[in-house]
Amino acid sequence: MGSTADKIKGKTNKVAGKARQAAGKVVDNHEEQAKGAVQEAKGQAQVAKGDAKDTVKRVVDKA
Question: Which residues are within 8 A (CB) of 43 and not within 5 positions of it... i.e. 6 or more apart?
Answer without folding.
Answer: 9, 10, 11, 12, 13, 14, 15, 16, 17
